[in-house]
Design goal:
Layout: H1 3-17, H2 27-43, H3 48-53, E1 58-65, H4 74-84, E2 87-90, E3 98-105, H5 106-133, H6 139-163, H7 172-188, H8 206-216, H9 221-224, H10 227-231
Antiparallel strand pairs: 1-3, 2-3
């Protein structure tokens, strides 16, 4: 079945699913619609979840940063995209300002945006602490400590967020459909994702370990738990 035909079936399924007593239908009309819906879904090997997913809007979120945090924020951003199922890309290394973009279903991009903000704020707070701690040393040495600290935070945040992804995701068939819909939307928008060169971390500096320790204390669960996000299956 072509994607266009499947979209048409999905629209019909949503229309039948909306024929309920709560929406003004009689009991007989609601029962008849439910029976037709079940027959249609079975005949076309479709679930109601897929039909509903095909109605969800896509969204794009892009951030620009002109600082050392922006140069490292892509690390947790890549893990966030893996967790939420959104697509992610960044500007090439050396391009200024740094841009980070999420694309996908609206609610998944919204969670991606929120998680990225948590990471960015924690790194900003950490940077201010390190700059204050090393205020009396020369500028170059202070900057070296700050960059190593941010590398430690970025690497640890990335690792922690990746660990939130379930080992064996449920709803595999629906994930395949979601991925196909996002890929098709990217193609329609003429967006091609490419790997970009990444620089290494300053893990040789003692401040790297301090940054990693600080990142272990960041509350990430605020962005991925709670009834609203769980109901939308963000951690499939």
């Amino acid at each position: 079945m072509s994607s266009t035909s499947r979209e048409r079936i999905a629209r019909l399924a949503r229309a039948l699913a909306a024929k309920t007593a709560e929406n003004g239908c009689t009991e007989d009309e609601a029962i008849s619609a439910a029976e037709k819906l079940a027959e249609m879904l079975a005949a076309h090997n479709m679930t109601l979840d897929e039909a509903m997913m095909r109605e969800q809007p896509f969204a794009t979120h892009r951030e620009h940063r002109e600082d050392a945090i922006g140069e490292r924020l892509w690390k947790p951003a890549s893990a966030i995209a893996l967790l939420t199922g959104s697509r992610y890309w960044r500007s090439p290394a050396g391009v200024w300002p740094v841009s980070i973009t999420f694309f996908g279903f609206d609610h998944e991009v919204e969670v991606s945006k929120y998680l990225l903000a948590i990471c960015a704020r924690s790194m900003e707070d950490g940077q201010r602490r390190v700059e204050k701690q090393h205020a009396l040393i020369n500028k170059d040495r202070r900057r070296s400590h700050v960059l190593a600290y941010l590398d430690g935070m970025a690497d640890t945040l990335e690792r922690r967020i990746r660990a939130l992804k379930p080992k064996e995701p449920t709803g595999t068939g629906l994930i395949v459909v979601r991925d196909a819909l996002i890929d098709a939307a990217l193609k329609d928008a003429n967006i091609q994702l490419r790997d970009t060169r990444a620089r290494g971390s300053r893990d040789f500096d003692p401040s790297y370990a301090a940054g990693a320790l600080a990142a272990e204390r960041v509350r990430l669960d605020r962005g991925v738990t709670g009834p609203e996000n769980q109901s939308k299956g963000l951690l499939r």
